[in-house]
User: Fold this.
Amino acid sequence: MYSTRDRRFLALAFFVTGATGLVFQIIWTRLLVLSFGYTTYSVSTVVATFMGGLALGSLLGGKVADRARRPPVVYAAVETAVGVLALVATIVLLQFPELVAVARSRLNIPYHGFSVWVALASLVVLLPPTVLMGATLPLLARAVTRAEGTGGRDISPLYALNTLGAAIGSLTTGFVALALLGVTMTAAIAAITNILVGLAVALRFRRIFTPAPLPEQPTATHRGVGLAPLVVGFGVSGFASLSAEVEWTRILAPFLESSVYAYTLVVTLFLFGIAAGTLVGRRWGQTAIEAERGFGLAQLGVGTGTLFGLLCLYPFIATHSEVLADLGAIVRNPSLLLPTTLWFALLLFPSTFFMGLGFPFVAKWASERFQQLGRRTGGIYAINTLSAVLGSVLAGFVLIPRLGVKNALVLSALLSLLTAGWLLLRTSVPQARAKLALALGGIVIAAVVMSYRLSEPDYFATRLGFPSFKILWHQEGPDTAVTVLRRSNRLQLNIGLRPVSGTSVILTPWMTHLPMLYTGQHRGARVLNIGLGVGHTFEVALAYPEAQVTAVELVAGVVDAFLRFRPNAQALIESRRSQLILGDGRNYLLSVADGSLDVLIVDPTPPLYGAGAVNLYTKDFYTIAARKMRPNGRLMLRLPWSADKYSIQMVIRTALEVFPHVTLWAPDRGSGYLLITSPTQLPTPGDATLVARVQNLEEAPASVKNELLALRPRLIADTAALKAQLMSNIGNIPVVTDDHPYLENPLYFPLWMAVPRDAEQ
Assistant:
């Protein structure tokens, strides 16, 4: 029989591998995004594959656990194999982008929407390690459970510590590891850690040959997993919990500029809350409270906690709406993270605490039939995981677009409340059922009233954050929310509540004209525009004689806004010289023929450190772009006004690593920069040259020429000047790569590196 120290040792091992498991999920998602594109469809497919593997592994692990004479030794072998297969999967995924680009062109795989090929490729790579990960909980549950009915006490600490480890893994990866170590090194350390944990467990338990003695056969009153009420309730709770996580992420991410920090904090706080609830509920799971009733009470807490968080959301928005228009606020004032995190915790902790509080009762139920403990644990956990996958997918693709994010969150709360009502009414004495039904009915009515009376959070935040604008149109899509606003005659496009584009003419025309006029050879140019915005760049490029223009836009709602609010949008997309692609720009670029582009215009959603934006500013992307361009091709990168100077230096330093020709430009009015690069050394046009080339635009009317001349950009620095300026501080300006996405972690330098004062100026 295993001692208390043995159980603590296994709990510590499960804590560590909980952290590595989240590391693998984050890194594999990042790597597959480079192959399949940064779309909700691709990310959801990867996450569903990951969690589906866990569910399958949980089922298989449960069967193995009940037959194993030494579950800890089997667990040790599984964790070792996870480390090995995770390392292999990471190596394979590093080679995926070019292979997928070839397959996409040959198999005609779409760039947007669900693709069976994406799912199959994800399954082939991720299924082996994730199945083994899923098998670990049933194996350890079998090892640590001492007797029939003690699962609430014995299994709960394992689950809590594993979840706590996952929270720490998420927090460490998002804030520290990727910046300090990079993607590959972080994955390697996680894999080696798994292997070492497996070896340590094997060494400790190598001489323990028998598990705890089995009790007598259970009575006929015991049930298998089947469709027992608690199993159904646990499945519904998985659906509601992951659906709520998606919904909360959509609501809260814009307040930290949809950065990696935003997503990391939401996931971390969810996991911390669940871990805390499980630890507190450990003792409750050992009381005389029936498992179904205890889980029902926990679900009552989840539902009311979600509604409480929704009520607290509006004071949070009212006190933080000003940050929506303040791009770059995180870098300028990192102290914003602390109060924002505290608000996030207030909104999320009540519901997530009760999510965790229900698990000890599930463990108690699973251990009521000791000889089938592994199967029951594995089966119920698999059902919960599969339901969670369904909740996550439906929340993003159906509930939020159809109901709005507020009503989708209320629906998640109602599912928890209905589950609570069903389980509590089943287990209550007849005298108490009427009062219980009345109380539950009151809470449900309150939830329905909230759904009708409360404003949609996005509308509420937009009105407060942009008070001088009128909201013309709003759409909740699978990817993000898209809003069109108007002030006077100016339109503004918000993506995820953040201003990203508009009809201002200060910078936009020259985003197209500068790269097109750079060499004076623009007739018949082949142009690729990544980032549609309001469509101005797309339209200006098509105005050039015989230009072949392709625009690639990631968000479907942006295309819808373009079609609604660009007067000549339909004519533009119907032109024989134009093409509008819905998908990931970098992903599409991989399929473009080498040496075929004259102009590549990159204008992603700001800020530079927004999640996914870094993929268009790395050395790897520049290398792909250089290969796809003609010798005198021009790559134009927009550096928005919100970019901090150190990030701009990183972008320039990285461009100089790939391109022999790099120049930096800025308009005389307004803010922001235009970075022009080329695979060959081109003559840099002076002001007089730009004036002459504008005047020679036969297709442009005089009014357009005059406007362009009035707004023409000035040269900040040519290639030689940029190299000279950066050379004195080159050791403190790293190269941004897919493996080291420094740009995505703007707090890395002030927090983890001593940045010289001259680098900040």
Remarks:
- The longest strand covers residues 629-639.
- The chain has 31 helices and twelve strands.
- The chain has a mean pLDDT of 87.
